[in-house]
Design a protein that fits this description.
Blueprint (H helix, E strand, L loop, with lengths): L3 E7 L5 H14 L3 H4 L5 E6 L15 H12 L4 E6 L6 H8 L1 H8 L2 E4 L3 E5 L8 E5 H5 L2 E11 L3 E3 L14 H7 L3 H15 L3 E11 L7 E11 L2 H11 L8 H9 L9 E5 L26 H7 L2 E4 L9 H5 L5 E4 L2 E4 L9 H5 L5 E4 L2 H13 L3
Parallel strand pairs: 1-11, 2-3, 2-7, 3-4, 7-9
Antiparallel strand pairs: 1-10, 5-6, 7-8, 9-10, 12-15, 13-14
Helix pairs in contact: 1-3, 3-5, 8-10
This protein binds iron/sulfur cluster (SF4) (2 copies).
Length: 382
């Protein structure tokens, strides 16, 4: 089987010229935009606009990367729009705060909201046979994903594949968290979503990634890379190997490997451009606190004892109630202008942690999880 090409290009700053050169080179390594995209119709460029956040926080795709990708797409496609469905706030607000709206004005393209959606049937779906997708996603002649490389409390990592979850409009995302509460189920759902959206190209902004307590409160982590491929699974797998992380610890990449979706293993990928060994990425911190859930499938109290628990830090909580609105099973209430979580009904999806604008929700491991952590580390010789 032919190996899947992944462009890996060193890019160590968000200087517009540096980013433009790196993104152009990434597309050239893949044969140019003309070999990847249709000429007719509208191309949707889909960045990660998770929330209204400043670009230096590394929560959203950097505006210079979005602009450079739009420029490449404009070389061949007659019409280009940029859109996403944020988890918090609205598309235009997130685009303004992140600098993406300004970048789009410079490039002469519109930012469009993902407010309206439609049912999309996927009979071949392994787990999910129908999605509610944003209309611009369904109507696009091609989707170009421009993701941000980050850690993620629930999935461990978010990049090219997980970026597609934003194709589900706003509050509709909660339904998928409620329906697919286990990590492996949610990961398999993301693979079905990938089959529904089928991005033509996936670009990953890993110039400055986020590690640690991602996807909203982690450490901006200089990583120095732009990656691109027609296969988002291959993009994520290469990025994680650069970080020294086995891609199969991420549920949707494990599922991709198990089901033969995309290229997960290094032998199935051909890295073009800068050699992976020239990227000296050390101490990339994955999120803590939830390593056992994919290993042990228990319910109830056992599951609760081996997974991290969301805990409100009252000194940081401003009482904004964003977490209450974001909680899929609605188990957060407000008391004396502070968030209160009913742990007995919490499904451990960590949407509250992801959406809290103040970083006031910690993910805390209990004693059983900590002992298990040490046991796993001892098995792996750490
Ligand atoms: S925990 Fe965060 S999101 Fe929830 S009310 Fe407090 S500040 Fe707002
Ligand atoms: S409290 Fe947080 S982790 Fe628990 S179900 Fe609600 S959003 Fe998910």
């Amino acid at each position: 089987m032919a190996r899947v090409p992944v462009a890996l290009v060193r890019c160590e700053s968000y200087d517009p010229e540096v980013v433009h050169t790196a993104v152009e080179r990434a597309f050239d390594l893949l044969g140019g935009a003309e070999s990847l995209l249709p000429r007719k119709g509208t191309c949707l460029v889909k960045p990660n606009l998770l929330s209204p956040s400043r670009p230096e926080l590394a929560i959203t795709t950097n505006p210079e990367v979005v602009k450079a990708v739009v420029t490449e797409v404009q070389k061949v496609v007659e019409s280009v729009v940029v859109g996403d469905g944020p988890g918090r706030g609205d598309t235009l607000g997130a685009a303004e705060a992140s600098g993406v709206a300004s970048a789009c004005r410079d490039a002469g393209v519109s930012v469009i909201p993902f407010d309206e959606g439609t049912e999309f049937r996927l009979p071949e779906g392994r787990l999910c046979k129908e999605f509610f997708l944003a209309l611009p996603v369904v109507q696009a002649a091609a989707v170009v994903s421009v993701a941000k490389m980050k850690t993620h409390g629930f999935m461990g990592y978010t990049g090219a594949v997980k970026n597609l979850f934003g194709c589900i409009p706003g509050t509709r995302k909660a339904k998928y968290h409620l329906r697919y509460q286990e990590k492996d189920e949610f990961g398999l759902m993301l693979l079905d979503l990938l089959a529904a959206v089928r991005p033509a190209v996936s670009v990953l902004d890993a110039v400055v990634a986020m590690d640690g307590d991602g996807p909203s409160h982690g450490r901006p982590r200089p990583f120095g890379a732009i990656l691109a491929s027609a296969d988002p699974v291959a993009v994520d797998s290469v990025a994680l190997r650069l970080a020294g992380v086995d891609p199969r610890v991420v549920p949707y990449l494990k599922a991709a490997g198990d089901y033969g979706v995309g290229a997960v293993d290094s032998g199935d990928v051909e890295v073009l451009g800068d050699p992976p060994e020239s990227f000296n990425i050390k101490d990339f911190r994955m999120p803590g606190g939830d390593r056992h859930r994919s290993l042990l499938r228990f319910g109830g109290a056992v599951k609760k004892s081996i997974t991290a628990r969301p805990v409100v830090n009252f000194s940081k909580c401003t009482g904004c109630a964003v977490c209450q609105r974001s909680c899929p099973p609605q188990v957060i209430s407000m008391s004396q202008k502070k968030a209160v979580i009913d742990d007995s009904r919490c499904i451990r999806c960590y949407c509250c942690h992801e959406m809290c604008p103040s970083g006031a929700i910690d993910l805390r491991m209990g004693p059983v999880a900590r002992v298990l952590d040490r046991f796993i580390d001892s098995l792996s010789g750490k």
